[in-house]
User: Fold these one by one.
Assistant:
Number 1:
Amino acid sequence: MHFKSVQYASPQGGIKLMVTGAVHGNEVCGTKAILRLMKQFESGELALIQGSVTFVPITNPLAYEKQQRMGDRNLNRNLYPRADPQDFEDRIANWLCPLLADHDVLLDLHSFHTGGVPFALVGPLDNAHRLEPFKFAREEEAMARALGVTRFVDGWLDTYAKGVKNRMQRQAKGDLSVDDISADIKYGVGTTEYMRENGGYAITLECGQHEDPHAPEVAYNAILNTLAHLGMIQGRTVTYMTGAEALSLCEVIDKDAPGDQFVKVWKSFDEVVKGEVVGHRESGEAVCAPFDGLIVFPNPNAKPGQEWFYMARRTHRFD
Ligand SMILES: [Zn+2]
C-alpha cells in the first residue's frame, strides 16, 4: 500500500491548489472526479495557464481498500504529524500534513450518508483567537460561492471545542464517567483545519449521498470551477452563488448513556423548533432542541461521551 499524489504545474508559477478524494474510504466521488480530470490533463484537453494543482485521488488507501469510512481511525480528526506513529492514519498524516502545508488552497471532496443537497463546510470569519486564527475568510467565501452548491455551513471547530469544554467540566464534576471521552480540542482538527493552521485556506465539499450518481459530477464541476476561479484554466465561466442558504453550527449534544435514543431517524438539516423533543435519555428525560434551528450530523450509534447531534442556526453569511 502506498500514498500517491500527482502534480500538474504551469511554468508560470502561482497559486498552489491541492484537491483530495477519499479521505474517508467509502466516499469515492472525489476520486472519480480527480481521475477524470487527470485524464484530461494527460490528453492535453485541459491545460494550466498559471499555478499548480496537486491531486490526491485516494487519501486513505486502507479505508478505500476496505470500502469503509476509516482504516484504523478517522483520518479527518486529530490530523497532525507524529514522531511515533501508532496507527495507519498517523502514517498517512506524516505524509499528508507536510504536503498540505506546502500548498495555499485545499478542496477536500467528501460525500455523506443522509442529508439532502450538496454543501460546503467553510472556516471561521477572520479572527485572532487562539483556537482557529484566520485571515482568508474573504478568499475562502469567494471560492465557496464558485463551487456550484447552494448550502454553506460554518462553525465546526468552535462548536467542537465547546463540546470538549463541556465534557471536561462534566467529567470534573463527576457527571460523566466514561472511559472514551472525546476531550481533546485538537481532536477536531481535520484536513481543512490543518490547512488553515498552516497559512492556507480550505473547503470541505460534501458532494451528495455516498451512492448518488450525481456526486462525482458535483465534485468534477467544483474542481473545474475552483481552477477557473483561481485563474488557473481558461474557457470556463464561473457563476458565483448569492442568496444561498448559510448555516452555523453552534451546539453539540452528547450521548450520555447507551440507552439514549432519538424519537425518530433524524437526517442532517432536518428543521426543529425550540423545545421540540429530539430524543430521550436512558432515564426517560426528554432532550429538546435548544432553539429554532436544524439538526446536523445526528449519530444514533454514538458512544457515551461522544457527539450525539449538532444544532445549527441560519445566518446571512452567504446572502
Ligand atoms: Zn467524509
Number 2:
Amino acid sequence: MTTYRAPVADMKFLLRHVFRAEEMFATMPDTNEVNDELITAILAEAGKLIEGLVAPINQSGDQQGCKLENGVVTTPAGFKQAFAAWAVGGWSGLIGSVDFGGQGMPKVLSALIEEMNFGANSSFALYTILPTGVTLTLNQHGSEQLKQTYLPKLYAGTWSGTMCLTEPHAGTDLGMIHSRAVPSADGSYRVSGTKIFITAGEHDLTENIVHLVLAKLPDAQAGPRGISLFLVPKLLVDVAGNLTGETNNVTCGSIERKMGIKASATCVMNFEDSQGYLVGELNNGLSNMFTMMNHERLSMGLQGNGLAESSYQIAAEYAKERLQGRALTGPQQLDKAADSILVHPDVRRMLLTMRANIVAGRALSLYVAFQLDIGRFHEEADVRKQAEQLVALLIPVQKAYCTDRGFESCVLGQQVLGGHGYVAEWGLEQNVRDARIAQIYEGANGIQALDLMGRKTVRGNGELLKVLVAQMDEFIHEQQSVTAMQPYLEIFIDSKQRLVDTTAAIISNAVDAPDEIGAASYAYMELMGLTLYCFMWQRILAAALMAQEAGSGDREYLDGLIKTGEFFLYRMLPRSKSLVEEIAAGATVMMAMSAEQF
Ligand SMILES: Cc1cc2nc3c(=O)[nH]c(=O)nc-3n(C[C@H](O)[C@H](O)[C@H](O)COP(=O)(O)OP(=O)(O)OC[C@H]3O[C@@H](n4cnc5c(N)ncnc54)[C@H](O)[C@@H]3O)c2cc1C
C-alpha cells in the first residue's frame, strides 16, 4: 500500500518558479529573510514529521475513533505523541506574532504544511488548524491583556482552541443563536448555552482548551448585529497565564458518530455561567469571528487538495501495477498476461483530472495565501487594500471549488482501484469519507457560492472582480511576446471574457429579480473556479516553459506538467461554456415547483 509522501518538490516548483516567493518576500521588511533556502528547510522538516508521525496513525485513528467517558474525550493511539512532537517542533506558532512567542512566518508556508497534514491525516490536521485560527482572531481583535495571557501558550501548543458558533437550531443562520453572556462586576461575562458540532471541543492533547464563543447580551438586538464574541477557557487562568486549578463549567455532553474524520472529536459543548472575556467590541462578534472563519475556510480548501493528493498518489501507483485488459492499439506488455490499466484512455481521464485539479487547486490556495501575507506584511496601504479585496473575493471560491474538486478526486481515485478502492485496505474509502465534510462545514458550499454571487459580486457591482481581472490582464500583457504561450493565452482570454460577460449579465438580471442571484450562484462559483484554475495553469505553463528553455529543473517533470496543463485547457475548461448556458437559463425553472411537489 502507498503511504503518504509530502509533495515537497511540487510545492517548491510553485513557490520558486510560479510565484517567485523569495523575490516577493524580499519586498516586505518583516518577511525579507524568508528565502528559498529557508522555505525548502521548513517544508522538508514539516514533511518529515508528517510522513513519520502523522500519516502512520491515519488509518488506525479512523478505526479507533475518539471515546467519551465521564466527560473526558480520549483521542486514538498515537495522537498525543504526534501532537506533542508538533508542539515541541514549534509548528503551532509558525505564523504567530513574534511579540508573543510566535515565529512570524508567512501564511504561504503554513498553508502548504496544512495541505500536507490534511493529506496525511485530516483528523489530526483539525487539531492543529483550530488553535491557529483562535490566535489570529485574538491577535487581531483581543485586548492586550488577553493576548499576553493566552497567545504564548497557544503558540507553544500547550493549549489548543475551538470555534463555537453552531447551535441545534442555528447553523447557517447564526443570527438565531440562543447562547447568552451576562456582564459581571469585574468586567468579565458569564456565558451560558449549548453549542453543537464543535471540532476538538474536548480532548486529551493539551492541558487547556480556549473556546471562542458567539453569544448575545440579554438586551442585544435580534439577528446577527446582536452577536458578540467571547473567549471562554475550559480551565480558569490567572493574568500571568497560569492555570488557577479551577474548572470553568465547560463540559462536553456527547461526541458525534459520523461518516469520516473519526479521530477528530466533534462535540456538544455546554457552557453554564462560564467565565468569559469579550474579544473586540460588543455586538461586532460575527464580523470579528470572520478572521477565524476566513482562515478556516482556506484550510478546508486545503483539506480537499490534501486528500486529493493522497488519493492521487495511491491511484497512480496502483494503475502502474494493475494489469487488466489490453490497449486498444494492441498489446503493450507482451511478456505479461495483460497491460497495465494506464493504457486505457478512461483511466488516464481519471488520473489526469485528479492531477490537473490538484496542481491548480494548490496554486490557487497559494495565490490566496500570498494575498493574506501581502495584506498582513506590506508597507503600502493601497497594496494591502488590493490584497484584502482579492482575499474577500477568492476565499469562498477556494473553499467551495477546492473542496468539491477534492471530494471528486477522492471518488475518482477510488474508481481507478475498482473494487479495491471500495474496501478499507487501500485507504481510498477513508479519503472519500474524510473529504466529504469539507464541502459542508465552515459554511456549506452553497452558502459560499451565495456569498460570492450576492455579497461579493452583485451587491458590490462587480468591483472586486475588476481587481482580479486586472491581475489576469497584467499576466496576459507580460506573456504577449512569448511565442510558445500564444495558443494557451488565446484560450485564457476567451475564458476570462466569458466570466466578465456572465457577471455583467447576472448583475443586470438581478436588479428586479432577487432569485436570479441564488439561482445563478452555484454555477457561477464553478465558472469562477474553472476560470481561476485556468489562470493558475497559465502561470504554471509559463513557468514550466521558461524553466524548460533555460534547461533548469527536471525535464521529465516539466514535460509532465505541460501535458497536464494541456489536458486541463482542452478537456476540462470547455465545461465553462455549459456553465454559462446553465446560468443563462435563469431562476424560473428552479422556482416553478410548489413546496408540495417536492
Ligand atoms: C464534523 C463537523 C464539524 C463541525 N465543526 C464545527 C465547529 O468546530 N464549530 C462550529 O461552530 N460548527 C461546526 N460545524 C457546523 C457546520 O459549520 C455546520 O454544520 C454548517 O455550517 C451548516 O450548518 P447546518 O448543519 O445547520 O445546515 P443548515 O444551515 O441547516 O443548512 C442546510 C442546507 O441548506 C442550505 N441553506 C441554508 N441556508 C441557506 C440560504 N440562506 N440560502 C441557500 N441555501 C441555504 C445549506 O447550504 C445546506 O445545504 C461542524 C459540523 C460538522 C458536521
